[in-house]
Design goal:
Elements lengths: L2 E6 L3 H12 L1 H8 L3 E7 L16 E2 L2 H5 L6 E4 L7 H10 L3 E4 L2 H18 L3 E2 L11 H7 L5 E7 L2 H13 L3 H10 L8 H4 L2 H15 L10 E2 L7 H9 L2 E11 L6 E11 L12 E7 L3 E7 L4 H20 L22 E2 L1 E7 L5 H11 L4 E7 L6 E6 L2 E2 H13 L3 E10 L7
Parallel strand pairs: 1-2, 1-4, 2-3, 4-5, 5-6, 8-10, 10-18
Antiparallel strand pairs: 7-9, 7-11, 9-10, 11-12, 13-17, 14-16, 14-18, 15-16
The chain binds nicotinamide-adenine-dinucleotide (NAD), L-homoserine and sodium ion.
Amino acid sequence: MAMKVALLGCGVVGAEVVRLLQEQADELAARIGTPVEVGGIAVRRLGRARGTGLDPELFTTDAMALVTRPDIDLVVEVIGGIEPARSLILAAIKNGKSVVTANKALLAEDGAAIHDAAREAGVDVYYEAAVAGAIPLLRPLRDSLAGDRVKRVMGIVNGTTNFILDRMHTQGAGFTESLEEAQALGYAEADPTADVEGFDSAAKAAILARLAFHTRQVTAADVHREGITGVTAGDIASAEAMGCVVKPLAICQLSEDGSSVGVRVHPAMLPREHPLATVGGAYNAVFVEAESAGRLMFYGAGAGGAPTASAVLGDLVAVARNRLAGTSVAEGGHDTGLPVHPMGDTVTRYHLALDVADRPGVLARVAEVFAENHVSIKNVRQEGHGDDAQLVLVSHRAPDSALDATVRRLRALDTVRSVASVMRVEALNNAD
Ligand SMILES: NC(=O)c1ccc[n+]([C@@H]2O[C@H](COP(=O)([O-])OP(=O)(O)OC[C@H]3O[C@@H](n4cnc5c(N)ncnc54)[C@H](O)[C@@H]3O)[C@@H](O)[C@H]2O)c1
Ligand SMILES: N[C@@H](CCO)C(=O)O
Ligand code: NA
């Protein structure tokens, strides 16, 4: 007997899901062991020529009636946002349907409750498309690495901001023109705030931290978030002078004693030899460090209709197979309870460029401020001279609160005319 799928939303991703379900019907049936049939599509408005080739009778504006219909086996949610997606998914679960969703915002906010409901109902909730689009990442973290201890997950999980910073580096373009180009190419959201202010990456980081560290304690609100709107041409030039590139990073890291996790989203300088430094354009990549596996890198298209639909279809095959086998994969049943520590407790490394007067004692006074805050300097160089001198310093690793206090104190010094660039530096080797 065919499995019946209800599709919620028929936008960029939904339309591609419909196309692939039709074009690949035979392969999907063979891989699952039974045919998959579209049982209904919930849309906001009827009557538009949708060009899907599907029976117009399949379209409905009553999504709730669709997800609770007894003949529906699987629900694919690609509406996005919190409501009505949450109520629809919970109703589907309660009615015994397995769910596939691409909704990072909802999972970051309410993932724990949704997984609880799924466990209770004995159904699946799969969401590979929610983080880094087409890239197989969440199931590798959940399944393939289930026997290992993940220490750190660091990635570029927003295509729009990677595209903007890449253009600033490679073409010397300014922030605004790069954003306009990203919008014209269709990478950025209509309102790009979610991209450039880091909300999109923060939701993805929360999901990654929960999976990597088996903790239910992380939501998007717990993620330290800084956007890329403050990145200047000066920061880009400073990074290049150090052999680095500026990348929009999401970092989930176990504390050194393993008792808490840090989850943060901010631009940072990366040495050119770091695998993430070579990820250009709108591509995504995620670097995972695990105790036994060592370093792993996942790379590919993080957005776009077809790539995202590929991840949705992969999940659809998985949940359909589980259903046929009369089983489901419960998630979130084991909670390590690891809490999120404040950003100030996260150990980071800063790059600073200070506009100073080239006079005796200036470097000594700057070094004193570092010492007063117990921050060790890794290297320092001077560029220019006279009134145009710039001191460029890179710190050793220190608590972010100590580095932040150092910068605030430096800003107040008479000898420092201005702080031209402040940016965290990430490295492959975390020892110094
Ligand atoms: N587009 C991407 O590249 C991408 C990548 C990864 C994940 N996602 C996620 O996929 C989901 C869908 O994204 P999208 O880009 O297709 O968005 P979209 O805006 O193109 O499509 C959403 C569709 O849902 C419809 N809709 C809204 N409310 C509805 C309701 N109550 N009932 C039925 N339909 C309703 C809208 O009319 C729209 O057609 C989001 O959660 C998004 O975060 C998208
Ligand atoms: N706006 C997002 C889409 C994928 O979530 C991006 O630029 O990566
Ligand atoms: Na993915």
